[in-house]
Design brief:
Helix content: over 70%
Number of helices: 10
Number of strands: 0
Order of helices and strands: HHHHHHHHHH
CATH topology of the largest domain: Helix Hairpins
Shape: elongated
Strand content: under 5%
Radius of gyration: 31 Å
Structural class: mainly alpha
CATH architecture of the largest domain: Orthogonal Bundle
C-alpha cells in the first residue's frame, strides 16, 4: 500500500497521466474528422478505450490508497465525476454522452498545479464577481427602462420593449456594431442621445471589465501567496526532519563513544 501511494504521489507518474490526457484529447479531436475515421477510426476507438481503462485503474488505485479521505478533496470529486461520466454507455438514448468524453481533458486541471491554482483563484473570486454582476444588472435595468421610454417610440427594433433594450445594451457593452447599427440610427432622430450612450458604454465596457480583472488578479495573487506559504512550510518541515535525523545520529555517536570509553577505561 505504501509503495502504491508513493507511485501515485510521484511527480513522474503525474506527468505520465497528464501526457495520456493530452493524447486522449488529440484522439477525441481526430474522431471529429470523417476522413481520419475512415482510415484509422477503429484504432482511435480502441486507443480511447485503453486510455479510459488506464484512467479508471488510476482512480481505483487512489480510492484503494486513500479510501474515504479521497472524497475530502473537491478536485478528487471532480476526477471521480468525469471518469464516471466517461464510463456511462454511449449507445441508444445515451449517445449524447459520447460528446462528454472530452471532459477528460479537464483532468489536466487537477494534474497540473499551475492550472489548479488558476481555477482555484477563479473560484475564490466568484463572490466579488457576483457583486460586480449585481451592480451591472442594476445599471442594465436602469438603462433598459430609460432606453425604452426615450427611444422606444421610433426605434422599435432596438428599444421597442424592455427585453429588446436589454439585448441592445448588451450589444453596446460588447461593442459589437455599436456605432453603425445602434448609435448612428438613433442620433439621426435624437441628436442628444450620445449623452445616454456614452456614459453607459464607458461604464459597462471599460469600468466593469477592469473591475472583473482586478478581482481575478487579486484572487490569483492570494492563491500564489498561499502556495508560497505552503512551500515555505514544507521546506521548514523538511529541514526540521533533517535536524531530527542529525540529532538522532549525534546521540547514537555519543552512545558509541561512551561505550568505547567504557571499554578502554583501565580502572577495574
Amino acid at each position: 500500500m505504501d509503495r502504491m501511494k508513493a507511485i501515485l504521489e510521484d511527480r513522474r507518474f503525474e506527468m505520465l497521466i497528464a501526457g495520456l490526457i493530452v493524447i486522449n484529447a488529440i484522439t477525441l479531436g481526430l474522431e471529429t474528422f470523417p476522413a481520419v475515421m475512415e482510415r484509422i477510426g477503429p484504432f482511435l476507438l480502441v486507443l480511447d478505450k485503453v486510455l479510459l481503462g488506464i484512467f479508471t485503474l488510476e482512480l481505483l488505485a487512489r480510492l484503494t490508497v486513500y479510501r474515504l479521505s479521497f472524497f475530502k478533496s473537491g478536485w478528487n470529486w471532480f476526477d471521480f465525476i468525469i471518469i464516471v461520466i466517461s464510463l456511462l454507455p454511449s449507445t441508444g438514448g445515451a449517445s449524447v454522452l459520447r460528446a462528454l468524453r472530452i471532459l477528460r481533458v479537464l483532468r489536466l486541471i487537477t494534474v497540473v498545479p499551475s492550472l489548479r491554482r488558476v481555477v482555484g483563484a477563479m473560484i475564490t473570486a466568484l463572490p466579488g464577481m457576483g457583486s460586480i454582476v449585481l451592480l451591472l444588472l442594476i445599471i442594465f435595468y436602469v438603462g433598459a427602462v430609460m432606453g425604452t421610454k426615450l427611444f422606444g417610440a421610433t426605434e422599435t427594433e432596438a428599444f421597442g420593449s424592455l427585453m429588446a433594450s436589454f439585448y441592445t445594451l448588451f450589444q453596446l457593452m460588447t461593442l459589437d456594431g455599436w456605432s453603425g447599427e445602434i448609435v448612428k440610427p438613433v442620433l439621426e432622430t435624437y441628436p442628444w442621445a450620445m449623452a445616454f450612450f456614452l456614459p453607459f458604454i464607458l461604464f459597462s465596457a471599460f469600468v466593469v471589465l477592469n473591475l472583473f480583472i482586478g478581482v481575478v488578479v487579486g484572487a490569483m495573487q492570494s492563491e500564489a501567496e498561499a502556495a508560497a506559504r505552503e512551500e515555505v512550510q514544507e521546506l521548514v518541515a523538511e529541514e526540521g526532519r533533517k535536524d531530527e535525523l542529525i540529532l538522532a545520529e549525534l546521540k547514537a555517536l555519543r552512545a558509541q563513544v561512551a561505550a568505547l570509553e567504557a571499554r578502554l577505561d583501565p580502572r577495574p
